[in-house]
Design goal:
The complex is a heterodimer of chains A (479) and B (647). In chain A, helix 3 packs antiparallel against helix 4 and helix 13 runs antiparallel to helix 14. In chain A, a hairpin with a 6-residue loop joins strand 4 and strand 5. In chain A, the strands form two sheets. Chain A has a seven-stranded mixed β-sheet. A six-stranded mixed β-sheet of chain A has the order 9-10-8-11-12-13, with helices on both faces. Chain A has three domains: 112 residues, Gyrase A, domain 2 (2-Layer Sandwich); 121 residues, Four Helix Bundle (Hemerythrin (Met), subunit A) (Up-down Bundle), CATH 1.20.120; 173 residues, P-loop containing nucleotide triphosphate hydrolases (Rossmann fold, 3-Layer(aba) Sandwich), CATH 3.40.50. Chain A has 15 helices and 13 strands. With 479 residues, chain A is α/β, with parallel strands linked by helices. Chain A is globular. Chain B is of the alpha+beta class and 647 residues long. Among the domains of chain B are: 138 residues, Elongation Factor Tu (Ef-tu), domain 3, CATH 2.40.30; 82 residues, Arc Repressor Mutant, subunit A (Orthogonal Bundle), CATH 1.10.10; 58 residues, DNA polymerase, domain 1 (Orthogonal Bundle), CATH 1.10.150.570. In chain B, 36% of the residues lie in helices and 19% in strands. Chain B has 22 helices and 23 strands. In chain B, strands 1, 2, 6, 7, 8, 9, 20 and 21 form an eight-stranded mixed β-sheet that branches. In chain B, helix 3 packs parallel to helix 12, helix 3 packs parallel to helix 14 and helix 4 packs across helix 5. Classes of the chains: A alpha/beta (479), B alpha+beta (647). At the A-B interface, helix 3, helix 4, helix 5, helix 14 and helix 15 of A face helix 10, helix 19 and helix 22 of B.
């Protein structure tokens, strides 16, 4: 069992900003931080771990996913020690790069390593409860709450929540079934009329845990439905990024000229590709330049890359100088995410020529040791629309893959829901193990109760009442 | 609403005396309330319709069981009487749930019903400052102070008027009671006693919401005609620790008798008799209006509700050592007498059994417990407390627990002290009272371990550790008992420390022992506590390798072993409790204008205005109050405090 976990959330508003701040507070915050954060440089030079850092000091370091060692971001972490923090508890602030993908990844690894997603207004509430903030600040709690309920009133949201409750309701009903049987044995020990199938309780719990995990997994897709898939278009100047953006968006959003370096800033379009909400991000062409404005554009392009769910790298044969330096740099910034390679302006060369060009490109990339970064390669023409449909299909297949083959009409889109469902799955698994191990039923019951408590935070169920109802409706007992 | 003066003006009325506290009804709740209050220095009078029925057990002849056994131990730890008497009058003892894990172990005793009642009466007669009086209270007398009703006394049917500063009503199932056996309806209390007539109306006039509940009891048989060879015997266990800490303190403990109970099943014939006569059952004919409990359905209920169940279990329990009477648990019914006779004869071994007392359903008036503060004082009338079945609960233990708390709080009310309230993380008593006053109940409420969120912590073995300090501070625990309690507590703590600090080096002897127990032998030094933490190893298993082991009593060993084995789970529960306490300790003033608080949803405003919770925690458990409402409330409270309006 994990002890009471710290809670985390992004403290800066959603959307793409330069940097984002993620906060985590509560007991064990430093332990969780140590699991994912490696200190590279710190203001207190001898310090090796977050746990050792004094209050009000910062460290520069790297966030990695302990599961596979993948680097998620480089960032600055600041430690606040209880009671000298915003919430009055131990607290860390992680200043990371601003994109939603990075933020989500960091929150994901925090949650996978012992934190939980904060409730709406939880930081403020803790701060308020520990007497850390004044009334005007506390009143923002009310704003958060009223904002949430306004949102919940929207038809679509309500429907989604209804479907979610129904889905969780099904698993809960199954859990209550096992729970009530175990409780019934405790409550009425002398009744010889033992509920049947108590032997398979452990198995049934495992099945429920699997269902909950499958539901939790839908969050990878659900997040995209809520926050959109970031598709970043990159390449050297004049590789046809803006033309592709306009094609995918369905209208001329970007100014397209044959002059290299026309796009000097990142440009975003929200659209839908094959039914998937996508945020297309056009970037300034990557090249070494002395032009100050263009240089800012290039640096912003790299910011955008770190936030990409999918990076589309465009190369136009007519502009290609054979230098893959920027490609390598971009691929490096992607971490574990991958690149779609697009040979643009294929109308300018023959089909056979385009294919051969693509083959050569692949072998150059292989020589750089970067072939594992490539997700797909295609020849396209924004002029003739050749291959454009296939790019859409690739975006769709990327989304489908995130669902790991689970075709569900219901997806978790809320990180709090994701957190509760994951926690419930953990507890139910543990309960199954405890039962299989032959340990006392009361421990399994405690674990199932905390799983149902977590699910109850989504459905509004109160466990004790539901349980008692369940026992009476299922079993015939009495004096 | 009648004042003392008005009461005395009535024909035949006379002033009979003045007391600090009047207790109405000498059942399990009333006895505890009166003993506690008198023990704390109040002059008390305890009324009952029939003094031969003091602390009667009108239904099952047993005390304790799951959740109820925990309640008895808690009552004992706070200085109540039930545990001591149950130990003295037990005729069989068992520890239930031994296989489900130590946290849900539940002590239960079969009780000699007659002896229990007699012993309690005798005890009451010796309590200083306490008078007991056979009389029927028909009216509660009140004054008005600053527009609020305040209790000032009570009046009996015969016109005796008593003045008092506080009143506890523990009317059990007596108010406007009627007994139902098929087509026959009798105005009667349980066990052929008078019902209480008029008191309910007096309470209604004082603004208390009256409900009507129903419960029932099975037949009693003469053992003479019973063929026990057709039943399964169920023996008691000598090693169940007594309910009371004080029993353990006794120098010469008498051996406790162990009479057997018996177990049998209904037959196909039983089922046919019930189905054939179902139209004669008042439950299905609509005669009974009261709401019955789900956990104690009548036998006809069981066959109707669970159609696919071929048979139901029945227990045969002795009623006492000096009687042949047997109680037939599981056969509660409101069928007519002739059907009851037929039904009993259809059971194995009971073909020739003679029924001494019929089964019946009983309907009675009680109050909606959401009309109470957690102190069990009514919101409507200051100084008026209610306890036991009048509050919608069921069971002797539930009643006794409430009686004790009501008695303590009546004393504190009179002395102007803050009420004594246990929360859900401290005791089953806390869960019981919080459930009743916060959520109310739609059926007679029975304590169950499933109702407790912190069950691993609320155990029968640590009730003294949880509550003796309170009992001592209140003044109901003697110095001698407190000293012994402290000694036990220190021994538990000391032994846990010793087990953590004692390390064993790997040795052949250790390896052999650990392997024999089915566990992996340690390769490095290991503490005794770490060994005990393993599921396969018990404290007793390690005696041979633990040279410095002190000689400890079984209760201490039990607590030590459980604390070590469950350490992780208990720690988790403690953390949940801390979180719970934070909200529980945020008090809500009683005068909050909920209707005006912006941001509260309408349902929440209404519920909060009506229930007036005492803490944020209690408010959060009211159905219809959402977490968002709670956050709004907290912000409002802070704003109010800053404006200087707070209390």
């Amino acid at each position: 069992m994990v002890p009471e976990s710290p809670y985390c959330a992004c403290a800066t508003p959603p959307g793409i900003g330069g940097i984002a701040v993620i906060r985590m507070s509560g007991r064990y915050s430093f332990d969780v931080a140590d699991r994912i954060f490696k200190i590279l440089r710190s203001t207190a030079p001898t310090v090796q771990s977050v746990r050792e850092m004094p209050g009000y000091t910062s460290a520069f370091g790297r966030i990695t996913d302990p599961k596979d060692g993948a680097i998620i971001d480089e960032c600055v972490l600041t430690v606040f020690r209880a009671p000298h923090s915003y919430t009055g508890d131990d607290l860390v602030e992680i200043s990371c790069h601003g994109g939603s993908a990075v933020r989500q990844e960091i929150l994901r690894v925090l949650i996978e390593n012992g934190a939980r997603a904060a409730e709406a207004g939880e930081f403020t509430r803790s701060a308020f409860l520990s007497g850390k903030i004044d009334l005007s600040q506390a009143e923002s709690v009310m704003d958060v709450i009223s904002a949430e309920s306004t949102l919940a009133l929207r038809a679509a949201e309500t429907q989604l929540l209804g479907a979610l409750r129904e889905q969780i309701g099904k698993t809960s009903a199954e859990l209550y079934g096992v729970f009530a049987k175990l409780e019934m044995l405790i409550e009425f020990p002398e009744h010889e009329e033992k509920p049947e199938n108590i032997e398979d309780a452990s198995e049934r719990l495992t099945t429920s845990a699997t269902q909950l995990r499958a539901l939790a997994r839908t969050y990878t897709q659900g997040r995209i439905l809520k926050e959109k898939m970031n598709v970043v278009l990159c390449g050297i100047p004049n590789s046809g990024k803006s033309s592709l953006l306009n094609r995918l968006a369905g209208y001329d959003r970007a100014i397209v000229t044959p002059i290299a370096g026309t796009t000097r800033d990142t440009l975003e379009v929200d659209t839908s590709v094959e039914g998937i909400p996508v945020r297309l991000i056009d970037t300034a062409g990557l090249r070494d330049t002395m032009d100050t404005v263009e240089r800012i554009g290039v640096s912003k392009a790299f910011d955008a890359i770190t936030e990409a769910d999918l990076l589309l790298w465009l190369i136009s044969p007519e502009e290609d100088d054979g230098d893959l330096m920027f490609f390598a740099k971009a691929a490096g910034a992607l971490g574990s995410r991958k690149v779609g390679l697009l040979v643009s302006k294929s109308d300018l060369i023959s089909k056979a020529g385009a294919e051969e060009y693509l083959r050569n490109l692949f072998s150059s990339i292989e020589k750089l040791g970067l072939s594992d970064k490539i997700r797909f390669g295609r020849a396209i023409s924004s002029e003739t629309r050749e291959g454009i449909g296939q790019v859409g299909a690739e975006i769709r297949s990327m989304y489908d893959e995130l669902g790991q083959g689970v075709n569900r009409s219901l997806l978790l889109t809320n990180s709090r829901h994701y957190d509760r469902v994951s926690r419930a799955a953990d507890r139910v698994d543990e309960a199954a193990a405890v039962l299989a191990d032959g340990q006392p039923a009361e421990i399994a019951c405690t674990l199932i109760r905390s799983a149902l408590d977590a699910l109850g935070e989504i459905t509004g169920d109160r466990v004790s009442e539901t349980l008692v109802d369940e026992i009476f409706s299922r079993f015939c007992i009495g004096k | 609403m009648t004042t003392l003066t008005e009461a005395l003006r009535q024909g035949g009325a006379y002033k009979a005396g003045d007391y600090d506290l009047i207790v109405v009804g000498a059942g399990h709740a009333g006895c505890e309330a009166a003993c506690a209050a008198a023990g704390l220095g109040l002059r008390c009078v305890l009324f009952d319709l029939r003094l031969d029925a003091v602390a009667n057990l009108p239904c099952n002849p047993s005390i304790g069981g799951t959740a109820k056994g925990q309640l008895v131990r808690e009552i004992d730890a706070l200085g109540g009487q039930m545990g001591k008497l149950a130990d003295e009058c037990s005729i069989q003892t068992r520890m239930l749930n031994r296989s489900k894990g130590p946290a849900v172990f539940s002590p239960r005793a079969q009780i000699d019903r007659k002896r229990y009642s007699q012993k309690m009466k005798e005890f009451l007669e010796h309590v200083d400052r306490l008078d007991i009086r056979q009389a029927e209270i028909t009216e509660i007398l009140t004054d008005t102070e600053e527009g609020h009703d305040v209790v000032c006394g009570a009046m009996t049917r015969s016109g005796a008027v008593y003045g008092a500063s506080a009143v506890v009503i523990s009317s059990g199932t007596y108010m406007e009671a009627r007994i139902i056996m098929g087509e026959v309806i009798i105005q009667s209390g349980p066990d052929a006693s008078f019902p209480s007539v008029g008191l309910s109306e007096s309470l209604r006039k004082l603004g208390l919401p009256i409900m009507r509940f129903k419960t029932g009891t099975p037949v009693r048989l003469n053992a003479r005609g019973v063929d026990f060879s057709q039943m399964e015997k169920q023996d008691g266990e000598d090693d169940m620790p007594p309910f009371s800490f004080e029993y353990e303190m006794l120098e010469n403990r008498p051996a406790r008798p162990q009479m057997p109970c018996w177990n049998l099943w209904t037959t196909q014939k039983t089922r046919e008799i019930i189905e054939r006569n179902l139209h004669r059952s008042p439950l299905f004919g609509g005669t009974i209006e009261g709401t019955g409990p789900r956990y104690c359905p009548s036998i006809e209920d069981k066959f109707v509700k669970f159609k696919d169940k071929e048979r139901h279990q029945v227990f045969v329990e002795p009623m006492g050592e000096d009687t042949c009477e047997l109680y037939l648990q599981g056969m509660s019914t409101s069928m007519p007498e002739d059907v009851q006779i037929e039904m009993v004869k259809s059971l194995p071994g009971l073909q020739n059994a003679h029924i001494q007392r019929s089964a019946y359903a009983i309907e009675y008036d009680c109050i909606d417990p959401t009309a109470l503060f957690p102190s069990l004082e009514t919101r409507a009338v200051s100084g008026l407390f209610t306890a036991g079945q009048i509050n919608g609960s069921s069971g002797y233990e539930e009643a006794a627990a409430q009686g004790l708390i009501a008695g303590i709080n009546a004393v504190r009310y009179i002395r102007g002290e803050s009420p004594f309230v246990l929360d859900r993380s401290e005791a089953y008593i806390g869960v019981l009272i919080d459930d009743l006053v916060t959520k109310g109940t739609s059926e007679p409420y029975r304590m169950m371990t499933s109702r407790a969120e912190y069950r691993l912590f609320l155990r029968q073995d640590n009730a003294d550790e949880r509550l003796t300090q309170y009992g001592y501070d209140i003044g109901l625990i003697s110095a001698e008992r407190y000293r012994r309690f402290i000694r036990k507590r220190d021994r538990v703590a000391g032994e846990i420390r010793r087990l953590n600090e004692t390390h064993l080096a790997p040795s052949e002897r250790l390896t052999e022992l650990i392997e024999k127990l089915g566990s992996t032998p340690p390769t490095n030094g290991i503490s005794l506590a770490d060994l005990i933490r393993r599921p396969q190893i018990r404290y007793s298993d390690l005696e041979k390798v633990d040279a410095a082991r002190p000689d400890l009593e079984p209760a201490v060993v039990f607590s030590v072993e459980l604390s070590i084995k469950y350490e992780g789970y208990l720690k988790l529960e403690k953390e949940r409790i801390e979180k719970f306490k934070a909200l529980e300790n945020k008090a809500l003033p009683q005068n909050l204008p909920y209707e005006e608080i912006e941001g509260l949803r309408i349902e929440a405003r209404q519920k909060l205005s009506r229930l007036r919770p005492v803490s944020i925690g209690q408010a959060s458990r009211i159905s219809g109050v959402s977490p968002a409402d709670i956050a709004v409330l907290m912000v409002y409270l802070d704003a109010r405090k800053r404006r200087g309006n707070g209390r």
